[in-house]
Amino acid sequence: MTPMTVNDIIHQLSTAHTASRDELVYLLNNITDDEQETLRRAAQTAAREHFGNRVFIRGLIEISSYCKNDCLYCGLRRSNRSAVRYRLTREQILDCCDSGYALGFRTFVLQGGEDAHFTDEVVCGIVREIKRRYPDCAVTLSLGERGFDSLRRLFDAGADRYLLRHETADRTHYGRLHPPQMSFDNRVSTLRFLKALGYQTGAGFMVGSPFQTTENLADDLLLIQELQPQMCGIGPFIPHKDTEFRDFPQGSLRLTLTLLSVIRLLQPRILLPATTALGTIAPNGRELGILHGANVVMPNLSPREHRKDYAIYDNKICTGEEAAECLECLRRRMRYIGYEIVTDRGDYY
Ligand code: SAM
Ligand code: SF4
Ligand code: FES
Fold first, then answer.
1. Is 338 exposed, middle or buried (CB count within 10 Å of its CB: 0-12, 13-18, 19+)?
2. Pocket of ligand 2, candidates 60, 62, 68, 69: which has the most ligand atoms within 8 Å of its Cβ, to mutate?
3. Whether the Cβ atoms of residue 259 and residue 214 lie closer than 8 Å to each other
């Protein structure tokens, strides 16, 4: 059999939405700039077929910078004694939703470290109140690993979606990014459980995390292909000065964009954000993300006084702006490349 070329693999991704591990490794290792442009166009076309020029927005509310975990890459890890810790009150969270709703947000993402303050009772109460005030809105949770009973309670309280990046599909690599108490198996079984419960579920990973190989990335893509999550969050790894990964290089813009395009072609209807991390490593990173097949942006709705303290990596953008300013800024940026931000829940179909 004649070996496949990169262009053959791109064609296969565009038409059959599949690729083998060897093909993915080959593509990621060998793609030239011209071939990347072919891939980008195919991914952008696929996104436009399903979503037109519409970009969905999610209002991100960073509810707590306390975390009991110690992920080696993250500035919020519990052993970072220099991190400033805060948690939002129920009223502050609801205020963020109120102002977000007025701005046109119809999805609220409650994200935070694994903070024992946010018991099931507390989170269920907040979710119920958001759904009572705004029955036309979706609530997404991104609160790390919780027990199966807990996830069921939150779902029954009205949470629609859950984001839990798998971080890496390779068990050994997972072990190098996390302390021994954290388990790859638990991460993946939690993701499967979330999906089975009926959450629109988001997996995802960092690009260029320490020790990552191309084979690891191919396995990430295969896991996405197998799990079929409704959402996938990927962004470059960015070092944080108070973690032991401080001296590792940040993930590459080009590789992140290539991976966004491949994911769009593997799962054409997936909800794929152009992340804040992408906007942090390049001034037009989020625009490039959309042009490479992403279809979601997640402006920050957190109170401005706490923004800088949700410091998962260094130099995070949008820590000084109000939500309305970021929304207007993103609207302008999207218009400039021919896209429109829409007021819509932006569910997976
Ligand atoms: N605690 C929850 C969790 O871990 O799922 C949600 C919050 S956590 C800060 C959200 C995501 O931030 C993680 O899934 C991880 O991929 C990403 N992240 C953490 N540290 C990062 C870094 N240094 N660079 C880029 N992304 C990072
Ligand atoms: Fe905590 Fe999430 Fe950061 Fe890990 S990635 S330390 S769970 S906030
Ligand atoms: Fe926040 Fe541009 S999106 S300042």
1. exposed
2. 69
3. no
Residue 317 alpha carbon, nearest atom of ligand 3:
1
Two tokens, residue 311: 């410091």
- Span 6-342: which CATH code? 3.20.20.70
Between CA 247 and CA 166 the distance in angstroms is 23
- Taking the centre of ligand 1 as the mean of its atom positions, its distance from the CA of residue 6, in whole angstroms, is 32
Q: Which of 326, 328, 336 to mutate to test the pocket of ligand 3 (most atoms within 8 A of CB)?
A: 326
Taking the centre of ligand 1 as the mean of its atom positions, its distance from the CA of residue 1, in whole angstroms, is 42
**What pLDDT digit, counting tens, does each position of 66-80 carry?**
999 999 999 999 999
Q: How many C-beta atoms lie closer than 10 Å to residue 336's C-beta?
A: 10
- Runs of H (alpha helix) within 157-269: 171-177, 184-197, 214-227, 253-266
Looking only at the bridges linking them, the beta strands covering 138-142 and 107-112 are: parallel
Task: Please spell the DSSP secondary structure of 146-189, one letter per residue.
Answer: --HHHHHHHHHTT--EEE---B-S-HHHHHHHS-TTS-HHHHHH
Q: What is the pLDDT of residues 107-160, one digit of tens each?
A: 999 999 999 999 999 999 999 999 999 999 999 999 999 999 999 999 999 999
The gap between the terminal CA atoms of the chain, to the nearest Å, is: 38
For the chain, give every domain's residue range: 6-342
CA of 33 to the centre of ligand 2 (A): 35
- Measured by CA distance, the residue closest to atom 6 of ligand 2 is 77
pTM: 0.98
Mutation probe of ligand 2 site: the residue of 67, 183, 187, 310 with most atoms within 8 A of C-beta: 67
Q: Decide: 63 in ligand 2 pocket, CB within 6 A.
A: no
Of the candidates 43, 61, 11, the one whose C-alpha atom is nearest the C-alpha of residue 262 is: 43
